[in-house]
Structure formats: C-alpha cells, structure tokens
Design goal:
231 residues; 4 strands; elongated; two-stranded antiparallel sheet; mainly alpha; 10 helices; single chain; 66% helix
Length: 231
C-alpha cells in the first residue's frame, strides 16, 4: 500500500521539530525512505512541501538540508502569530459551531483544573489543543493552516517556559470562549491579542539558549504506516 506523502511529511516535520535532525543536517531521500519504511517518491514530495513551509532548504552540492532559522526569522514567526491568532478568534465568534464551543469549554475546564494542580505538561498539551480548536472554529481553512504551521515553527524554534500564573492564563482562555460564545468578535480579538502578547514573553529561542541537543532529541515514534497520525 502506498503511504501518502502528507503522512511522510508529518513524520519528517515532527522529527525536525523534536530535534532528531539538527539544523543544517542533510536529509537524503534514501535514508529517509528507509527510516520511515516508504519509497523515495513520497519522501521527495514531502521534502518539497517542507521546503515551502521553511523547514527544509535545498543547497547546491548538498541537496535537501534542515533549515537554519535566524533570530530575526524567529521574531517574525512570533509576530505573525500575534497578528493572526486574534483574527482567528474574531472569525470564530461569527462562525463557530456548537461542537466547537463544547470542545473549547471542555478544554477550559480541564485546563483550569490542571492549573490548580500545577501539572505543566498537561497544560502545554491542553493549550495546544485549545488554540488548534479555536483556529478551526474560525471557519477559514487557509487561516487554520497558517496558524498550524506557525505552531510547528514556534515549537521548533523556541523553548516555552511555563507561565508564572497558569490559572490567570486559563482564565484568559475562558474569557476568549465566553466572547466567542456571545458572538462578540471585537472582545474575542482583544482578549486573544493580550493573551498572545503575554505568552510570547515565556518563549526563548532554542538556538540562542545554549540548550544541549540531548535535551531536545526525542525518540521518533515512526514509521509512518501506522494509524493515528495527526496531519
């Protein structure tokens, strides 16, 4: 069975974000195909997609390599997020469904509960799901795709410290959902802008923080021909 290129792309991107492939390292089709248990055709397609996303660059005499973002590029990614997430929240206030609201409210309840317990790992995952759902509620596939790509980039470029006051952060999540539920796009935009600005303060560039590579590398959970891959 032919493995879809988007599944291979997800696998390679996840490993780049996790630090399995160092910045600047070569990505040869043959080795990648062997690693993920696929042919070279979906690998080639995946590398083209990752190059368009900015995770991969093609170098003369070297071929495909992991990109090496600059500090300016890292700052630009955070700035784009600060502009687009409030737009997504404003759109969500007009286009969300009851299903979106149910998921968002459930995530807020869980987040507030975990914040009281001080479980930072759970909070990080819940926060990611919250913002992913909020983006989907915008009803704009293009905007959702851009925000998803920005989240991948931020996870790759930055170490994110736990917020000083997680309960306050999740209170802001709750206020965003309340505004979205009321259809108040301006308030949803304003609260999300404030929340995004505050969250940016706990981001530290990985390649500027002197973090040892061993702290970043996680064991890959691939090959890709398994069920449950997130796209």
């Amino acid at each position: 069975m032919r493995i879809p290129a988007h599944s291979v792309c997800t696998a390679i991107r996840d490993d780049i974000v996790a630090g399995v492939y160092e910045r600047g390292s070569r990505l040869t089709e043959e080795l990648l195909a062997r690693r993920y248990g696929v042919s070279r055709v979906p690998v080639r397609e995946a590398l083209r997609t990752l190059e368009a996303e900015g995770f991969v660059v093609t170098r003369r005499h070297a071929g495909a390599c992991v990109a090496e973002p600059t500090e300016q590029e890292g700052a630009d990614v955070l700035e784009m997020r600060m502009l687009l997430e409030p737009l997504g929240a404003s759109r969500a206030a007009q286009r969300r469904t009851e299903a979106h609201l149910k998921v968002l409210r459930g995530l807020v309840r869980l987040g507030q509960e975990r914040a009281r317990r001080g479980n930072s790992e759970d909070l990080r995952s819940l926060g990611g799901w919250f913002h992913e759902t909020l983006a989907q509620a915008s009803g704009s596939p293009a905007l959702t795709s851009m925000l998803t790509q920005l989240r991948h980039k931020i996870a790759w470029m930055y170490v994110v410290d736990a917020p000083a006051n997680p309960a306050e952060s999740w209170a802001e999540h709750g206020a965003i959902v309340d505004a979205v539920a009321r259809g108040d796009g301006e308030r949803a935009r304003a609260i999300t802008a404030l929340h995004t600005e505050r969250s940016g303060a706990v981001h530290r560039l990985r390649f500027a923080a002197g973090q040892d590579r061993a702290d970043r590398v996680r064991t890959s959970q691939h090959p890709v021909n398994v069920t449950g891959l997130r796209h």
